[in-house]
Amino acid sequence: MKELRTLWLYSNALEGTLPTFEANAELRAVWLWGNKLTGEIPSRWPAQAPNLQTIYIGNNNLTYVAYPAYLVELCRNCK
User: How far is residue 68's CA from residue 14's CA, in Å, rounded to a whole number?
Assistant: First the structure.
């Protein structure tokens, strides 16, 4: 799905880790809020999806030591 721009799968009880988006360079928005996803927030998302502007991944069981720098930058641009 090389032309995928929006992935909208919130509140679907999805389980597993967050996906990589290596084949989705056009991806602009990811809505995975309210599932049962586990693991770490991928630090490689910016390189895999350089057009990514919106990420909703809250209300899952994700772990992280610190927010990846690209998430902090996205939040600054949300004002």
Answer: 23
Residue 27, Cβ neighbours under 10 Å: how many? 23
| pLDDT tens for the 79 residues of the chain, in order | 678 899 999 999 999 998 888 888 888 999 999 999 998 887 777 778 888 888 888 899 888 755 566 665 665 555 4
Q: Would you state the structure tokens that stand for residue 23, as one six-digit string?
A: 């084949």
Compute CA 59 distance to the chain's CA centroid, rounded to the nearest angstrom.
13
Whole-model pTM?
0.74
CB neighbour list of residue 37: distance below 8 Å, 6 or more residues apart: 14, 15, 16, 17, 18, 57, 60, 61, 62
